[in-house]
Amino acid sequence: MTLREPTLPLPSDPRIVELPESVRLVRFYDPSRGRWDAHRFFGPIRPARFDHQPPPPSDHRTRSVWYASTSLRGAVAEAFGRLGFVDQGSGRKIVQARVGGSIRVLDLVGTAARRLGLTQEIVATTDYALCQSYARAFYDQYADIQGIRWRGREIGSINLVLNDRADMTALSPEVDDEIIHRDLWPRIARAARDCRLEVV
User: Given a cut of 80, is residue 1 above it in pLDDT?
Assistant: First the structure.
């Protein structure tokens, strides 16, 4: 099966999961662009896999994204994997937020993708424009989804993108600090080395 542009309408019975309250979402972010819970309205950008803003890239009032992983190692791999290194002087911050309210996401993990006529190519291909066309189709057809869940291509971590429908008050930050914080940096550096990334 080769990944092609989405065929509409999409199947009517996708797997939609509600994130359990035990889940913690981890992300690295640039504080100059807003708080930990600030969505990115500019898009779609490459290589943001599931940006659902229509091209060409521009600011959108109503469509936004917020990417995270369910583990520190996954967040490190997704944020820094393409760079090949983690820089403690990057000025980035890290947030770990606990799910405490309803967040419903379209599931693409494992066999869930098959329910949409897809394989794991949707999360492994580097044709990001094609993935983004699916993100737009998912958003347009499944009006109750607040994001997408998939297994990332960097290290196989469970990743999520929340869209503008997500109520960010459903997330409570437990950690929100500079990556160079003395209690955080050793853990980040260890996760980076596990991912075979250079630590600088």
Answer: no
